[in-house]
Amino acid sequence: MASSGFSWTLPDHPKLPKGKPVAVVVLDGWGEANADQYNCIHVAQTPVMDSLKNGAPEKWRLVKAHGTAVGLPSDDDMGNSEVGHNALGAGRIFAQGAKLVDRALASGKIYEGDGFNYIKESFENGASERGAKRIRVHILTDGRDVLDGSSVGFVETLESDLSQLREKGIDAQIASGGGRMYVTMDRYENDWDVVKRGWDAQVLGEAPHKFKSALEAVKTLRAEPNANDQYLPPFVIVDDSGKAVGPVLDGDAVVTINFRADRMVMLAKALEYADFDKFDRVRVPKIRYVGMLQYDGELKLPSRYLVSPPEIERTSGEYLVKNGIRTFACSETVKFGHVTFFWNGNRSGYLDETKEEYVEIPSDSGITFNVAPKMKALEIAEKARDALLSGKFDQVRVNLPNGDMVGHTGDIEATVVACKAADEAVKIILDAVEQVGGIYLVTADHGNAEDMVKRNKAGKPLLDKSGGIQILTSHTLLPVPVAIGGPGLHPGVKFRNDIQTPGLANVAATVMNLHGFEAPADYEPTLIEVAHN
Ligand SMILES: O=C(O)[C@@H](CO)OP(=O)(O)O
Ligand SMILES: [Mn+2]
Ligand SMILES: [Mn+2]
């Protein structure tokens, strides 16, 4: 085969110089919304971000961070950290897990692949459409991507689907449950107890709460003071004799029905690794395990899966490091993988450890972040500042988690404090950029803190049964800012106005330009142009 002529070498930018340190700041969950009392960014004192927006309008613009702009099925899909950071780092729009799974289900291909064939071997002479005769569902209530309290409706729907299966002679039941933030879905190894609580309920059939039905479980546990879907305690469903109806047993097939890599890697390790020392699994059933997707391409975890994940290659991080850009990346645990793993196309570890340093600041664990809304913003900013001042790095990249993590708690007062803390952190970083004559690019991965209320189509806040507002704990569909500046920025640089609907994927080429390079031809176009020399 003839050589494709591929080269990692990036062409020099015709006008922009090399050698200026570039700070890339991602404000997690920081979108642009109308100014009202439910916009915590507006309510909070955020003088630094305000000055970026109002001080130099030609160096501030909004980009799309949701839906098709980040590879999700439709523009009704809100953005999230995974797809947002993937797009920021990859500079192109890849069809994401959600879309790939939708497609595989619609075409039926999901039932033809290696993953499904593998679990099928566990089915005894099947009776259902696809062969499984005995099905146990271990549910996690959400309240984070959907409204708090919606768990009840979801359980009702699931129960009715399962009862239809039972009518066909399939033994199908919900076996256990718990709230996603307290049971199973930890990430980046922040708190293994979360995964252990899930393991105990799902695999061992042991939990502090026992119920005859999941609907009863969810309704009863939600009635406790301060209970919410995200943090429901673990429960198991028991039969009349008090025995758990569905612990995971030898010979079972197990599917983790979740396409979010970061939230599934820890459980996948517990299910798949023979050597595992994060908690005592007590009993390790011999199962056939598949993930909805492969969650970590480097670790090949899990080794079997139903749908192939997007292959995100030739990321901007990889190009830049191969073109000599020394890179520093930092966040606290809950978002550390965002500026490393997601940024690098769902790849763990260093691209080139001789040129990179990744620093993880331990997050608080075992608390909800409305209790400590400043999180580690200051510590992250100080690390970024030190990295800039050290002169050892060409790119310093951070994620400031506050708007997102505190926004998800639905606590408006705390989210205001969170936004202020993030703004103060930005100041520290921009001051350091100033000192070293560098350039900054400040952006976000999706909205969250800028709108904390559920609204009708006309934008009016919706009320609940008791007349209070319906708090929105999820991300939004709103655009996010991109602001550039700093003493190292060529004075002729301004945002182009010939790109109709720019999105997060346009940021990578922009950052490459700021480092003095042209982006690869297949990258989404840069946001900037140079007006004069
Ligand atoms: O916490 C998470 O897993 C999601 C919300 O479900 O948020 P983010 O995409 O910001 O990580
Ligand atoms: Mn995010
Ligand atoms: Mn989030």
- % residues in beta strands: 5-15%
Number of strands: 16
Spatial ordering of strands, largest sheet: 2-14-13-1-12-10-11
Taken from the alpha-carbon principal axes, the silhouette is: globular
Return the average pLDDT rounded to an integer.
Answer: 96
What's the number of domains?
Answer: 2
CATH topology of the largest domain: 2,3-Bisphosphoglycerate-independent phosphoglycerate mutase, substrate-binding domain
Q: What's the end-to-end separation, in Å?
A: 43 Å
Q: Low-confidence segments, ≥5 residues, pLDDT <50? A: none
- Helix share bin: 25-40%
In CATH terms, the superfamily of the largest domain is BPG-independent phosphoglycerate mutase, domain B
Cofactors, ions and other ligands in the entry: 2-phosphoglyceric acid, manganese (II) ion
**CA-based gyration radius:** 24 Å
| Tally of individual helices | 16
Pathway: Carbohydrate degradation; glycolysis; pyruvate from D-glyceraldehyde 3-phosphate: step 3/5
Subunit structure: Monomer.
Catalytic activity: (2R)-2-phosphoglycerate = (2R)-3-phosphoglycerate
Keywords: Cytoplasm, Glycolysis, Isomerase, Manganese, Metal-binding
